[in-house]
Amino acid sequence: MKLLETYILRRVGQMFLVALLPVLAIIWTTQVLQRINLVTDSGQSIGSFAMLATLILPSIIPIVLPFALVIGITQTLTTMNNDSELTVIDAAGARRSILARPILLLAVLVSVFSLFVDNVVEPRAKTVVREMIAATYADLLSSVIEEKTFRKIDEGLYVQISQRLAGRTLKGLFVADERDPNYELIYYAREGAVDDVGTSLIMHDGEVHRKTADGSVSVIKFDSYSFDLSDMTENNGQATLRASDRDLAFLLNPDPKDPDYIAKPGSYTAELHRRLTDWTLPFVFALFSLAIAGDARSHREARLHPMIGALGLAFVLRWAAFYVANQIDKNTVYIPILYAVPIVTSLVSIVFLNMHKRLAMPVVVRDRTSTMWKRAQKRVLAATGRTGRGATR
User: β-strand 169-177 against 183-194: which pairing, if any?
Assistant: First the structure.
């Protein structure tokens, strides 16, 4: 690789990492905090929390990678243009491929890494997370929930116990079940116990209140009642795997006897084609980023920062791919459209690169966006000025 190409690759790679790591950390933190109740409510150790947090990371990486690459490419090329480096390269008679080759090489490496994470690491990590959650909930009632404390153990399911005795016996049971939108159930029982396999809560000497959507209430007393916990405990530690938890080999050749595949075959088709297209997004994003920011421009030219246009197009394409992939679950007609999104974008970008033309926003959209951006800058400056004067006084 030539010295200039090595220089460009190093600068884009550094900016890519600078953009990737903070965004990845922020998104990762928000995802971890959403699951912190699982650890605190179930009495798990800090080691279990650290493991759960680590296993969440592979599901975030493929989403963030393409956008970090867009930021790295556009910011680097814009800085080189402002420092007149792109002008010098053009004046020296260098081909545009000298600029494109190191950037596309980095994009290929990022795409291959995304393919590996999306199809190998992420499915395994999701499987382990489901197994951890299933194992945690399997013994939740009998050993973890604090006495005389209301605890949410599932969406729409709340439990309180007055006393926990030896032999998995529970005294003073209260269960509120709002998971079914058609009716609400409230259970009271003097005592109960979770069975040995952890799939049922056996309640004795109690009553159940059933309230329907029209407001009518019925009360039934019982000597013994079995409350099903199989959905919550995932069959006592045996997690139910979904399409997103399967590896690529299973998606290519699903087991026709798999219960989840029988119930939702469309989700497996959608997941397969999503996996086969998502990994190409870093390379596609790199192509149109080059087409937007890869030419020398005058400093006097009024224009938006190339990063704004590139990120706007990136969000549109990512949303389009996400929307079409979800539609495949219901209608396989969308499969060719899913592949057309990255292919058409790549071809258009290549045409603009070969013709040495800029890939830019429509004039109307560009002007309105530029006006909004300038107004936002003025408001920020005005607010900063007022704050500064107030602080001085």
Answer: antiparallel
97 to 283, 286, 290: CA distances (angstroms): 15, 14, 11
Residues with Cβ within 8 Å of 118's Cβ and at least 6 positions away in sequence, in order, are 62, 275, 278, 279
Residue type for position 208: V
Question: Helical H runs in the chain?
Answer: 3-34, 36-42, 46-82, 85-91, 97-116, 122-138, 140-143, 230-237, 248-252, 259-263, 265-278, 281-293, 306-328, 335-354, 363-392
Calculate the CA dihedral of residues 261, 267, 271, 272 and round it to 10 degrees: 60
- Lowest mean per-residue pLDDT among 88-92, 122-126, 312-316: 88-92
**Pick the residue with more confidence: 48 or 288?**
288
C-alpha to C-alpha distance for 116 and 96, rounded to whole angstroms = 31
Tell which residue, 97, 98, 24, 30, has the closest CA to residue 60.
24
Q: What is the residue extent of each domain of the chain?
A: 3-136+242-384, 142-235
Please state, in angstroms and as integers, the Cα–Cα distance from residue 282 to each residue in 96, 101, 222, 342, 370, following that order: 20, 15, 61, 10, 27
43: left (phi over 0), alpha (psi -120 to 50) or beta: left
Three-state secondary structure call for residue 221: strand
pTM of the model: 0.70
The pLDDT of residue 391 is above 50: no
250 close to 275: Cβ distance less than 8 angstroms: no
Which of 132, 108, 115 lies closest to 54 in space, CA to CA?
Answer: 132
- Only one residue has tokens 């979800």, namely 326
Q: What is the pLDDT of residues 295-326, one digit of tens each?
A: 766 655 556 678 888 888 999 999 999 999 88
**Residues 78, 309: Cα–Cα separation, whole Å:** 13
Q: Give the N- to C-terminal CA distance of the chain in Å, as an integer.
A: 59
**What is the three-state SS of 129-168?**
HHHHHHHHHHCHHHHCCCCCCCEEEECCEEEEEEEECCCC
